[in-house]
Amino acid sequence: MTTRTVGVVGASGYLGGELLRLLSSHPSLLLKQAVSQSHAGETLDRICPWLADGHALKLEPDASSLDVDLAFLALPQGEALRTAPSLRSRGIRVVDLGPDYRLKDPAAYEATYGRPHSDPDGLAQAVYGLPEIDRDAVRGAKLLANPGCYPTATLLALLPLAKKRLLPSHIVVDAKSGSSGAGASPTPATHHPLAGASVNPYGGGNHRHVPEIRQALSELSGVASGEGPQLTFVPHLVPVVRGLLCSIYAPGVESSSFSSWNPTLEAAYASEPFVRVGGIPRLPWAVGSNRCYLATEAAPPSGVLYSALDNLVKGGAGQAIQNANLMLGVPETDGLPAGGLGP
């Protein structure tokens, strides 16, 4: 099989570092170039000495010199809009790990992120990359919007149920994530020495991922916009570094109806290498892996649906590589760990 070349733009952040870690031992994608403004001119062995290979690669200051088959953009919100159009014009496929191409409506993007969208052509062409849900669309993508970590965990849990019209009119998502989900730049709310002994809810009712979840829940399930369930989504920052767990509640669903949820999930993901339906998940099962763990538990008069993943892998860099594998025609599971840390 022909080796395909890739580059990482934003190599010094948490997602960029995770991309480098996974790509350094990838059997069919060659990490050819990496970009970091803050570490330009340095080599990877200086900023990432743990990598399996590619230690001598010199970091470049910007993406203008990229000459690869595909570029991963691990950039803050708004930055991909400055980078993706030029890459696409040169025939380079793009996987954007940020939020700039996830919301299809430019007005929704502006309302959510406080600035107008400057690449409407790219937005119209972008494919939302949940491979377990729409693998064929991912294969044909030139520009791919990699889903956020919270939406990935929530949508993998809910979409098979939405397709079968099993969801009630109101869903409650109680989500908890480690501090790495906030990125590498510390703030008073997310810096681990301050957050490490606390549990803090944030963004409840107004979190930037809610429009993304609502959009995908409608488009990928075939339910008309506005006809799907109402969503109450409350994320929490918990005192771990990585990992994400959602407890999803369905008020008003009787136990007899809820009992069909687990068989529906098992049937939907029976052949999927990176989704496992089984016992109530613990974060160490998922940490370090590209797998999402799903489970249901009866809690009369209804029940609870659980979803757990590593926010940096299946919720970020791992899923980006899974999508890139499909886009570049290499085996989907190449370079991706299925197992986590353990108990």
What would the keywords be for this entry?
Dihydrodipicolinate Reductase, domain 2; 2 domains; 7-stranded mixed beta sheet; 6-stranded parallel beta sheet; 20% strand
Structure write-up:
- The protein has 343 residues and is α/β, with parallel strands linked by helices.
- It has 2 domains: 4-147 and 314-328, NAD(P)-binding Rossmann-like Domain (Rossmann fold); 150-310, 2-Layer Sandwich (Dihydrodipicolinate Reductase, domain 2), CATH 3.30.360.10.
- Helices cover 31% and strands 20% of the residues.
- The chain is built from 13 helices and 13 strands.
- A 7-stranded mixed sheet has the order 8-9-7-10-13-12-11.
- A hairpin with a 2-residue loop joins strand 12 (292-299) and strand 13.
- Helix 1 packs across helix 13 (313-328) and helix 7 runs parallel beside helix 9.
- The protein is globular and about 60 Å long.
- The two termini are 37 Å apart.
- The relative contact order is 0.15.
- The mean pLDDT is 91.
Set out the fold topology.
Layout: E1 4-9, H1 14-23, E2 29-35, H2 44-47, E3 70-73, H3 80-89, E4 93-96, H4 106-113, H5 120-125, E5 127-128, H6 135-139, E6 143-145, H7 149-163, E7 170-177, H8 192-195, E8 200-201, H9 209-219, E9 230-237, E10 244-249, H10 255-258, H11 261-268, E11 275-277, H12 283-286, E12 292-299, E13 302-309, H13 313-328
Parallel strand pairs: 1-2, 1-3, 3-4, 4-6, 5-6, 7-9, 11-12
Antiparallel strand pairs: 7-10, 8-9, 10-13, 12-13
Helix pairs in contact: 1-13, 7-9
